[in-house]
Amino acid sequence: MNPDKIRGILNILFLVLALASIIVYFTVSDFKIFMYICGAAIFTKVMEFFIRFTNR
């Protein structure tokens, strides 16, 4: 699969997870759920970052 396509998918996933974490932060009282979703968003962004700089 093309690295640019993978990066695009990871960026879309990151944006969805970031939006979900903001919604969870303001609606759900359990902070642990927010941390899990936010951690998943950060993990996907880090993976996209590594793909961007290792495929030059």
Structural account:
This protein is an all-alpha fold. It contains 2 helices and no strands. It is elongated.
Question: Quick check: average pLDDT?
Answer: 93
Count of DSSP helices?
A: 2
Shape: elongated
Taking pLDDT < 50 over at least 5 consecutive residues as the criterion, the unreliable ranges are none
Written as H for each helix and E for each strand, in order along the chain, the element string is HH
What does the main sheet amount to?
none
- Strand fraction equals under 5%
Q: What is the CA–CA distance across the termini? A: 16 Å
State Rg: 13 Å
Residue share in helices? over 70%
Outline the fold blueprint.
Elements (H helix, E strand, L loop, with lengths): L2 H25 L3 H24 L2
Brief characterization of the structure:
With 56 residues, the protein is mostly helical.
Relevant terms:
single chain, 56 residues, mainly alpha, 0% strand
